[in-house]
Amino acid sequence: GGKRCLGVFSWDVTFPPALGTGDISRNCTEDGWSEPFPHYYDACGFDENETESDNQALYTVGYSTSLVSLTTAMVILCRFRKLHCTRNFIHMNLFVSFILRAISVFIKDGVLYAEQDGNHCFISTVECKAVMVFFHYCVMSNYFWLFIEGLYLFTLLVETFFPERRYFYWYTIIGWGTPTICVTVWAVLRLHFDDTGCWDMNDNTALWWVIKGPVVGSIMINFVLFIGIIVILVQKLQSPDIGGNESSIYL
Question: Model's pTM, two decimal places?
């Protein structure tokens, strides 16, 4: 059929550290080049039966539903000026972080799984690494705005005079600024000390804690704030100075 080839064509593939090194080859046949062997799944240590297609489809539906709902909520909050207040501004930033998280997941899947059949075990491009940096930034921002929600409610209950605008300025810095610093530090360290693959694997535990540590810390602090909020509300409900209307509000 006019197909021509010479010899045996082979190329190196990147293996996980535990699997060593090797190559994948193609033979020259009368019909042209043969299929690559061994298969990428075998060469890279993957089990073809252990695919994540079902999980991917499930969370894609979930993120899509979330994206539509949050976008609708954002339109409502932006459209009606009566809803413009510090509390709703914080909600809007939280919604944006959820929206960005969903978008980053779709982009990440598009990059990592678009050419799954022609995958050379691990993609290692600047674009792919940039997508992973963006993904981690969105996830961190999401957690930190959840933390801001708890911090705002706690401060609202504790502070007698609450300068909301001034606090909102610092909330914005914490919610968007802290993830920026952490992810930037992680990317620089990853580039210098663990620049392998697409940065989607986190075999270096020490580097991974640059992102994981602040997220875990925000969750733990948020839990403490939650306990504090419950204690304050119970105290206010049990106070003899609280009238019927105030009691119903706190309840």
Answer: 0.74
